[in-house]
Fold this sequence. Notes:
- This protein is of the alpha+beta class.
- Among the domains are: 11-68; 184-283, Roll (Nuclear Transport Factor 2, Chain: A).
- The protein has nine helices and eight strands.
- Helix 5 (133-147) runs antiparallel to helix 9 (286-333) and helix 6 (149-170) crosses helix 8 (267-280).
Amino acid sequence: MNPDALPEKSVAELVENVQRAYPDADVSNVMLFEPYLVNAVVFSDVDKPFAIAYVNQYSGEIQEVNSGITFIGFMRSLHGWLLFPWQNGFSVGYYLVSGLSLLMLGSVISGMVIYKRFWRSFFSPKLRFNQGKRTLVTDLHRLLGVWSIWFIVLMSLTGLWYLAQGIMWHADVDIEPHTPLVDIADVPMGEARPQPSLSLKQALLQAKEQFPDFHPSYISLPEHNRDLYRLLGSGDFLFYDQYAYGLELDPWSGVIVSSKSPQTMTTLQTMMHIADPLHYGTLAGVWTKIIWFLFGLLLSGMSITGFMIWSSRIFKASRRQQEVPLVAEQQESY
């Protein structure tokens, strides 16, 4: 929260606040989210092998330190790979979840084939309340399905991409190049823990010079003498995610080792960076998130109405099978 309308502090200041609170902390990453959410500083300490400090970017206050799994992390893992373990570059749960995109795509195609002239529901939606429960549930199922076609197709196609991406991970196909190492000749010798010549603040200024519309989202600090600053962020391309722009900088010389932006991406890299905004609805902040959430509720409602229709048919068929022997017995008794 920012009730006093304070200006946003720099990332370097937030890192300094964490290091003041935990003098022995080794900060590895910084994650920046939407303006209404606090930033996260990832660090390790003597008694904390892994910890996340949630720092208010306006006041600089450390609001919470979490050393375990978070609710968001749990839900993301549950949704993404059903909490199945990862080993050798793949997870069975990831394949199960992304493979369901095939069933989802099949369901929307079969629905459009079975429901003749479905497009009429866009202009003249029909809900018959006075013709019984089954008719009402069927009308509701069709109406929800028609208005959710675009959303189901979007979830299916992005899910298919996640499936393809998982297969490429499993096959050791690199979509993006690995981070290089600093040349050993460029590393200062003779010091136990030499301090980089390039500060985090200077690295962020270089990113702004390279990409004027750069908004940092993920910052990785050098973990060893041959590691680089890695800065990822968003820019002025609506359909790309918050990691579409990137810079890797030599902490000793300040040289930009590599950079990326939507203009320099391959087809696979473009697919990877547009899939998440389309799947999660992060295109325009909280407003598109709300729209995606509402249509997600519609899909959940469709699963309920679909089950009600299916169970009604099964119950009706079962009742008919039970009635046939009774009728036969009555006829024989005459």
